[in-house]
């Protein structure tokens, strides 16, 4: 017994010493990078572990909000570098050695084989397949659906016009989800399911909680937790929808030479030989990434215009001065005739980027801000904070001023000062799709309505993980415009 008590700790100490020695270069390089303030010997995890989701945003502000060039910290076994400038964003997003997504974070989306989380050859293959769903011809094919569903959304909102404040999010989300579902997964009318929206509404906050518990990336440990069970139950409507999608599209499981096609026809094409797990995870992530992103951005955009009457007036004037007639569709090309609306959307995504923080992992050493970042380090890109940095955007950085995107100063900013859709080889595949859909929505909406809200800009509270939500809700009063 006493021998065991001596040998066991000795084995652990020796194993640890070998582990450290093998990784001596890693620790040597990591040791040279300045630490985030407020860590305990460089360790940060104790501040985040198990933290309540409502406190994550406050903590992120403390850890990432400072205008420091580069900092680092340990998060349990992970070494994390905080890249805090547009220059570093550019280096990371264009490096072939920073394409990997760290498992500890991205497994939290519950679809590790899907494109948002997968890596290496699987990611390259999936990206190639899914790119076939975003060709200009297909985007034009989606155009009449964008217009049809947006007009339905305007009619639905019209039923609430003049009747006091309400939260517009679920209406916007329904529109985005119908567009995504009908255009990409179903070819019929009965594709919309409000349970899917409620399911995602209820579980994104749990996804955040899951990310704060890194041991949950170990499958068998995760399965033992009540959080895991709650998430499983919460996501059941989404799982049911995926099964329905697969059943209805059974006929697409053939080998086809089709060069382009909507998501489901690509995913089921036998030519690509995707496994059942890959197909399930990809559908899951495409639903989540394809509707929630545009729904949140559009909702906060409407809220910003409700709070900023001058900007709203300029939007309305731009629509009135155009040839837009609500009895006809706006083509994707015609959305370019609304530059002020584009600035409004950009300003919304600057202040409220739906993905406020994203991560990469280095697969080789890279140079960043004069430091060598070791292989296997996690790199955080806190775009929310860089988008609001006064040293980049000026002393009014935290204010909503769409005109800044028309100014020479902003046009001359660093190419990576504004990256709401990320960049490089893992940039958002749906950015054009999203921009067309959002512009078509704003034009149709403000042709008919004007909005006001009792919520004040300074009172806005945000929840930032994993996607950015306004905690106060998207409450506004919609009034029919007198033309
Ligand atoms: C306002 C709307 C949107 C925003 C702001 C946005 C933003 C982003 C960001 C920041 C990423 C990279 C995330 C990371 O690196 O962790 C991403 C990835 C992605 N997005 Fe979007 N997105 C939007 C809409 C859409 C839509 C509508 C679709 C599909 C219909 C879509 C499909 C994708 C895909 C497939 C990826 C993964 C790309 C890869 O890893 O290779 N997105 N998006």
UniProtKB/TrEMBL annotation:
It comes from the Eukaryota. GO terms for cellular component: endoplasmic reticulum membrane. Keywords: Endoplasmic reticulum, Heme, Iron, Membrane, Metal-binding, Microsome, Monooxygenase, Oxidoreductase. InterPro entries: Cyt_P450, Cyt_P450_CS, Cyt_P450_E_grp-I, Cyt_P450_sf, Cytochrome_P450_Monoox. The keyword 4Fe-4S does not apply. Its main location: endoplasmic reticulum. It is a peripheral membrane protein. One of its GO terms (molecular function) is oxidoreductase activity, acting on paired donors, with incorporation or reduction of molecular oxygen. Heme binds at residue 428. It holds the Pfam family p450. It is found in: Endoplasmic reticulum membrane; Microsome membrane. Its cofactor is heme. May be involved in the metabolism of insect hormones and in the breakdown of synthetic insecticides. Belongs to the cytochrome P450 family. This is Cytochrome P450. It comes from Polypedilum vanderplanki (Sleeping chironomid midge).
């Amino acid at each position: 017994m006493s021998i065991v008590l001596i040998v066991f700790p000795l084995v652990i100490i020796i194993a640890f010493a070998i582990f450290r020695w093998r990784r001596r270069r890693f620790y040597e390089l990591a040791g040279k990078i300045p630490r985030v303030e407020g860590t305990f010997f460089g360790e940060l995890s104790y501040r985040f572990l198990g933290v309540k989701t409502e406190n994550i945003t406050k903590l992120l502000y403390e850890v990432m909000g400072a205008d420091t060039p580069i900092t680092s910290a340990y998060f349990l076994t992970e070494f994390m570098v905080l890249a805090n400038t547009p220059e570093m964003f550019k280096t990371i997003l264009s490096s072939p050695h920073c394409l990997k997504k760290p498992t500890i974070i991205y497994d939290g989306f519950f679809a590790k084989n899907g494109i948002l989380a997968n890596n290496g050859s699987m990611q390259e293959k999936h990206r190639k397949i899914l790119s076939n769903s975003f060709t200009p011809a297909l985007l034009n094919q989606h155009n009449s659906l964008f217009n049809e569903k947006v007009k339905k959304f305007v009619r639905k909102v019209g039923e609430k016009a003049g009747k006091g404040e309400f939260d517009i999010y679920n209406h916007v989300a329904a529109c985005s989800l119908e567009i995504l579902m009908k255009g990409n997964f179903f070819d019929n009318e009965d594709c919309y399911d409000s349970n899917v929206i409620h399911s995602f509404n209820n579980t994104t906050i749990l996804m955040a909680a899951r990310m704060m518990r890194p041991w949950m990336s170990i499958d068998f440990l995760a399965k033992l937790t009540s959080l895991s069970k709650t998430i499983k139950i919460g996501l059941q409507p989404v799982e049911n929808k995926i099964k329905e999608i697969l059943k209805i599209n059974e006929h697409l499981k053939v080998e086809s030479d089709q060069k382009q096609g909507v998501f489901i026809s690509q995913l089921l094409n036998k030519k690509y030989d995707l496994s059942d797990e890959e197909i399930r995870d990809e559908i899951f992530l495409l639903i989540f990434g394809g509707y929630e992103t545009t729904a949140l951005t559009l909702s906060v955009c409407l809220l910003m215009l409700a709070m900023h009457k001058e900007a709203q007036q300029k939007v309305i004037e731009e629509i009135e001065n155009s040839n837009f007639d609500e009895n006809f569709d706006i083509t994707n090309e015609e959305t370019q005739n609304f530059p002020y609306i584009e600035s409004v959307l950009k300003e919304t995504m600057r202040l409220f980027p739906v993905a406020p923080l994203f991560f990469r992992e280095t697969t080789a050493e890279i140079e960043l801000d004069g430091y060598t970042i070791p292989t296997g380090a996690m790199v955080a890109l806190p775009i929310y904070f860089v988008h609001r940095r006064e040293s980049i955007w000026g002393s009014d950085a935290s204010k909503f001023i769409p005109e800044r995107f028309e100014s020479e100063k902003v046009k001359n900013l660093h190419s990576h000062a504004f990256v709401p859709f990320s960049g490089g080889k893992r940039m958002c595949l749906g950015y054009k799709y999203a921009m067309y859909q959002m512009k078509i929505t704003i034009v149709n909406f403000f042709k008919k309505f004007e909005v006001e809200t009792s919520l004040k800009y300074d009172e806005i509270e945000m929840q930032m993980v994993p996607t950015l939500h306004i905690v106060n809700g998207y409450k506004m009063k919609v009034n029919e415009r007198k033309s």
